[in-house]
Design a protein that fits this description.
138 residues, alpha/beta, Transcription Regulator spoIIAA, five-stranded mixed beta sheet, two-stranded parallel sheet, 4 helices, 27% helix, globular
Amino acid sequence: MGLEQQVPSPRYTLSDDGDFLRLEWTPGVMIEADDIRSTIAAVNAASPHGRRPLLVQIGPLEWISQEAKQLLIDDTCSIRTAVVGVDDVGRVITAFNYRSATPSRYFTQESDAIAWLLKDRIDGHTVASAADTHHQDP
């Protein structure tokens, strides 16, 4: 019998959608500080010419460590972050997000999140408006 090699599933994927970056967490993942450090490095590497909007899809999320939460609060790798979850559980798990160093909101509809990410565009760059706040949608 041959040995089957187990390939670990990625904890997240990052893609470039042109006007914004898309970070998708693997469903059911438990996010640790090293995961966040890895995503910050990946987002920075994907944006060599400056910060861009970031769409984060969390799907059914299990847990985020306290250290990971603090890293997310302090992070400034994006100009604006939209978190898309599937339900109110995701909203509760990511409630710390309202204290983020960059404008951040929670959405359950991707189209609403993208519209918010891309508002206030000038010369191909998204800029924070005076009306931007660090909160979650009602």
